[in-house]
Amino acid sequence: MTASSRKILFLTFFCLFLMAAPTIILYSQGYRLSIPPQNGKILVKTGGLFVKATPKQADIYVNGGLSKKTDIFFGSSLIENLMPKKYDIEIRKEGYHSWKKQLEIREKQVTEIKYVTLFPQNPSFAVAAEDVNRFWPSPDGTKIILYSEATDGWSIKLFNVENGLKSQLAEESDISADGAKLESLEWSQDNKKITITAGLHDEQRYYSLSVDRLSPQLIREDNSVLAPEGSVADKLSDNTLFYLDKSGFLFKKDTVAGQIEKINEKPLPIDEKAAHKIWNINGFIFLSDGQNLYVFDGKSQEFQKIFDGLASDLEIAPDGTKIAYFSNSELWVYYLKEKTDEPKKAAGDKLFVVRLSEKIQDSAWISSDYLAFSSGGNVKIAEMDDRDKLNVIDLVKFSGDGRTGSSQNLFWENSKNNFYVLDGTDLYKAEIK
């Protein structure tokens, strides 16, 4: 090869390098050619998708094609170099309900799906306890108070979640031989004591019972924990008594020091015939008149109405940032605190979860991102990610043996992923893996 030929060949490759180098550099930085142009740009920078799912090693499908599998260590995966547009994302694992959502990938950003949980298609439920009419799980989920009714009166037992053992705590005759109604039961925050409100023919009494002792004794509280006569509602929580008077003012009393504080400056309209209820949840005060749900606004020093048609108790999420509540047909979530990751929420935002034709019977948090609820014999689970449509799955249906249509009460025990469902008078348990 002559010197001139070598020179021509060198210059040719040099020119090709000069032309290819910018393309290689742009490609390595995530730029791609967009045909047709997006927003007038032919060259756009790609985005990514980060997925974290339980159980691990789930398949990730993008627009119907298998893209990646989440890893075996963290259950996560990053899919890079996606053109900025909307994609149909599906996460699958054999034997589990799939997760589907359409999400937008933006330039220079990673869209995150960090809280996906896939639930088994056919969980196996077995009877854990019989002759149960109601139950109250402890705050840490390690114990459950079981309430049973019989011809000779009611009784309460302590159920140990760890070993399944039951122990007698108290019965109706311990309060009064003439009969007493168990109106409410509440756990202390340290999981060591329960407080019982009992209604007799002409009075209301409070009792405490230390469940961490070998021989628990039912102790009647003195008058310091009683609300003043004429109160339309009261709530005893540890050493704090809340009570609502007929004028529409809520008061807070320290039962040890005796100090009393008025909560709201503007009174609520009071219907003395209505069944009022008070909640104190992580410093947030809620009040219901049997129909409307109110939350106390510290800035205005008054109660603000947030819901109409309340038919449930309030269930706080494990992370303490939101509560769930429902009417006969609608399930909602109210955010107590700001949520800074996607999907973002401000304190005071409300999330509509579902509307059903059959009556909603109960709800329970599976985690801070998934909420279970029961209706018409079906137990369903809904996610809290409202980007696109919420994923709602049918977990199990209880039927047969005369139980169809009975009330399903729910409880999720987090340490071992045990799901409890009270169907009729049978308490069922399933380990959800």
Radius of gyration: 29 Å
Helix/sheet category: mainly beta
Percent of sequence in beta strands: over 45%
CATH level-3 fold name of the domain at 48-117: Immunoglobulin-like
CA distance, first residue to last residue:
71 Å
| Continuous helix count | 1
Name the average pLDDT: 88
Low-confidence segments? 23-29, 400-405
Main β-sheet, spatial strand arrangement: 5-4-7-8
What about the largest sheet? 4 strands, antiparallel
Say how many strands there are: 37
- CATH H-tier superfamily of the domain at 48-117: Carboxypeptidase-like, regulatory domain
From the spread of the alpha carbons, the general shape counts as elongated
Text of the CATH class of the domain at 48-117: Mainly Beta
CATH architecture of the domain at 48-117: Sandwich
- Helix content range: under 10%
